[in-house]
Design brief:
single chain; 75 residues; mainly alpha; rod-shaped
Length: 75
């Protein structure tokens, strides 16, 4: 192989690797966003569950405040 052919092959391989890196970065960003969305849903479900407990048990206001302080949930 000539020097020019080897250099051309190296450049092509480097371009392929750069594309792969860029695709990986985009996939990582997508997955991080999906994970963040899942955490938001988990927080909403927890809040809904705590709110449901308060409503169904009709707890006294003092107990509600204690649970709020312990769980950091707003009702």
């Amino acid at each position: 192989m000539s020097y020019d052919a080897v250099l051309c092959e190296k450049d092509e391989r480097e371009s392929e690797l750069q594309r792969t890196i860029e695709e990986s970065k985009q996939r990582e960003a997508y997955l991080e966003n999906e994970l963040a969305n899942m955490w938001v849903l988990v927080a909403k479900l927890k809040k809904a569950q705590v709110t449901s407990v308060f409503v169904h048990l009709r707890m006294d206001p003092e107990m509600v405040e204690k649970i709020r302080a312990a769980t950091a949930f707003e009702v």
